[in-house]
Amino acid sequence: MRVQSLDLYQYRNIATLELKCPEELHLFVGPNAQGKTNILESLYVLALGKSHRSRSPRELIQFGKQRAHLKARVAKDGQIHRLEVQLFEKGKKVSRNGIEQSRLSQYIGFLPAVLFAPEDLALVKGSPQVRRRFLDMEIGQVSRTYVHHLSQLSKLIIQRNHLLKELGKNRQTYSPLLDVMDEQFVSLAVPIWEKRFRFLRMLTKWAQEIHQTITQKQEELMIEYVPSIQIDDGMRTEQLREIFANELLKIRDKEIRRGSTLLGPQRDDFRLKANQLDLHTFGSQGQQRTAALSLKLAEIELIHQEMGVYPILLLDDVLSELDDSRKTHLLTAIRGRVQTFVTTTNLEGIDSATLEQARIYRVRQGIITELG
């Protein structure tokens, strides 16, 4: 799979861009705050229908303009496919081969992508919300039903929280509507848990192998899911449903008092350990970076296993965050297999063999110029 071309119109600080990019490696070089990240972000938006940096489509539109337009031609399975995202002040439209997709779940997955940016180091040392977002974005690329369930769950929790606040305000402890909502809650939460368990099981397999290679077999990486209720990967669907339903009943009075949903997939986390050491609390910066790199490289292998194609890889100013050994391992691992787009402030530390393979661009104030 290859992105053959990328066209942008009024996207962030880029007025227009028409980029032909069938090659394997593309390097975007320039000072900070010139628009390098915007290029990678646009590919991410074309892949997943939304930005990793901004929630509102309005923030992606060039200042003073009313809309933005993103297009890519993708070579996949021997055919050329067209992906388009149109951004407006109050919404967006996504389409594939000229056909608008009414649901994001119908669009995601056609252009799988893995993004590795400096903030991804927060996968290890950041908040549970960061790790949940990682799970949701990556599982969503390989499972359209997961995206649908997650979207429905988010809407349900908003409605449920509103009802819990109303019950607390009126000093009520029972509502038939809450019973109905809890049945829906269980039906949506359980398949999400099952998908997460399966994903982390596969991710752990790949990440362990990669991590051992990077650390020369000095460390064993473990990924441990931390749910908000006492469940585990070995439980059957019926068990998960029964346990969650019972836990919701037990905590109902507390939720009504607080006016908030306290249990469910939206409260979960996962923990990374090296040789049984919790990296979030006790890991050195080097260990945390190695674990984050192992997860990202494992993502590439997992997507290939599940979808039969390698994703595109977006490396946003991450090479400067890695020492020479980790940088070498990253570039060696992707060479010859993965189409890669890299942003960097300079080319120092990138080996000559890599530079010879790359198409290099200078980025200044939103203008992209090919070098050489």
Automatic annotation (TrEMBL):
InterPro entries: DNA-binding_RecF, DNA-binding_RecF_CS, P-loop_NTPase, RecF/RecN/SMC_N, RecF_2
Annotated PROSITE patterns: RECF_1 (PS00617), RECF_2 (PS00618)
Locations listed in the record: Cytoplasm
Keywords: ATP-binding, Cytoplasm, DNA damage, DNA repair, DNA replication, DNA-binding, Nucleotide-binding, SOS response
Alphabetized Pfam families for the sequence: SMC_N
Entry's Gene Ontology molecular function annotations: ATP binding; single-stranded DNA binding
Signal peptide from the UniProt entry: none
GO cellular component term, pick one: cytoplasm
UniProt superkingdom: Bacteria
Domain RecF/RecN/SMC N-terminal: from-to ranges: 3-368
CDD domains documented for this protein: ABC_RecF
Broad class of the protein's primary localization: cytoplasm
Residue numbers binding ATP: G30, P31, N32, A33, Q34, G35, K36, T37
GO terms, biological process: DNA replication; DNA synthesis involved in DNA repair; double-strand break repair; SOS response
Family membership: Belongs to the RecF family.
Task of the protein: The RecF protein is involved in DNA metabolism; it is required for DNA replication and normal SOS inducibility. RecF binds preferentially to single-stranded, linear DNA. It also seems to bind ATP.
The protein, known as: DNA replication and repair protein RecF
Organism of this sequence: Thermoflavimicrobium dichotomicum
Gene: recF
